[in-house]
Specification:
- The protein is an alpha+beta fold and 295 residues long.
- It is built from ten helices and 13 strands.
- Strands 8-9-11-10-12-13 form a six-stranded antiparallel β-sheet, with helices on both faces. Strands 4, 5, 6 and 7 form a four-stranded antiparallel β-sheet that branches.
- A hairpin with a 7-residue loop joins strand 2 and strand 3.
- The longest helix has 15 residues.
- It is globular.
- The relative contact order is 0.10.
Length: 295
């Protein structure tokens, strides 16, 4: 079965299995970096918001040998985990006073998202763009990207959004900073060194407590200064993805050009296209208290 036949099979089978009052709809979604993904929306008649379930991962499971019946069950389980039991109160998103305490920021690549940024309030930061989104209360990992139409409805400026997001983001999405091996062990990576040996490798992961859009932690007020004090050194920041960055203390003999080549190769071969943050390497100077791109 080719990919197009797989998509049609999934849609047809879902239509047969869904209970009365629930339908499904195919949707092509433009994600970060202009990447387009196929998805299915399962729509409940009496609910005004529906989760979007992306199908690429299920196609990969099919290629790996999982049968269609199991994949359908996986999709229905994903829907069950993310569906709302009742209508979402849309007034929460039309009244700025109701929503402002849930507005946070994330960082994305500026050049790769120029088309998106035409309709989105943002700030330029190095080769990145700071954009704003709303955390949807009581929905796990559900977010709504803030567009210029929202800002106009609320009668707020980009400065207003930045002010509330600068307060909310560190508070709602607390930073996590850990040795890279401790971080990888939480994902059950095999072959990691023993606990006592991990601190001998001075590489760290900086993200937030959800692991989603955690690269934005580099903007938390005073955080890079705090990390510099902890490491007792200046440090490099490698953009692992939109979800986290790698921090490495400045060590004599470090080669910036090699680092740039390394980041570019990893982005090309190991990171999902829609999760790539940048091919640049950044350097934090404690003396200047400043993060800059390596030239």
């Amino acid at each position: 079965m080719n990919y197009e036949a797989f998509l049609q099979c999934i849609l047809d089978t879902l239509e047969e299995r869904l209970p009365e009052g629930v339908t499904c709809k195919y949707k092509r979604v433009t994600k970060n970096n202009g990447v387009e993904l196929d998805s299915v929306m399962i729509i409940k008649k009496d609910c005004n918001i529906s989760p979007t379930i992306y199908l690429e991962g299920f196609w990969n499971r099919y290629l790996a040998g999982r049968n269609i019946e199991d994949i359908i069950q996986d999709i229905l389980a994903a829907y069950g985990d993310n569906a709302l039991a009742e209508d979402f109160d849309l007034s929460l998103f039309t009244d700025f006073e109701k929503v402002k305490n849930r507005i946070v920021y994330k960082v994305i690549n500026y050049e790769k998202n120029k088309e998106l940024l035409k309709g989105v309030p943002h700030y330029r930061y190095l080769d990145l763009a700071v954009v704003f989104y709303c955390l949807v209360e009581d929905m796990s990992n559900a977010t709504i990207l803030i567009h210029k139409s929202h800002a106009e409805l609320w009668n707020v400026s980009e400065k207003d959004l930045l002010e509330v997001a600068a307060v909310n983001t560190p508070k709602l999405l607390k930073y996590k900073f850990s040795n890279i091996f401790s971080y990888l062990s939480s994902y059950n990576f095999p072959g990691l060194p023993e606990e006592e040996a991990r601190d001998l490798v001075p590489m760290y992961v900086l993200s937030n407590n959800t692991g989603i859009y955690g690269a934005g932690c580099v903007l938390y007020k005073g955080l890079l200064h705090k990390l510099g004090e902890r490491l007792e050194n200046d440090f490099y920041v490698f953009p692992s993805s939109i979800h986290e960055v790698i921090v490495m203390p400045d060590i004599k003999g470090c080669d910036g050009e090699y680092f740039r080549m390394m980041v570019k190769e990893i982005n090309a071969n190991e990171v999902k296209e829609e999760e790539v943050l940048s091919d640049s390497v950044y350097f934090y100077s404690r003396e200047r208290d400043n993060l800059e791109m390596l030239k």
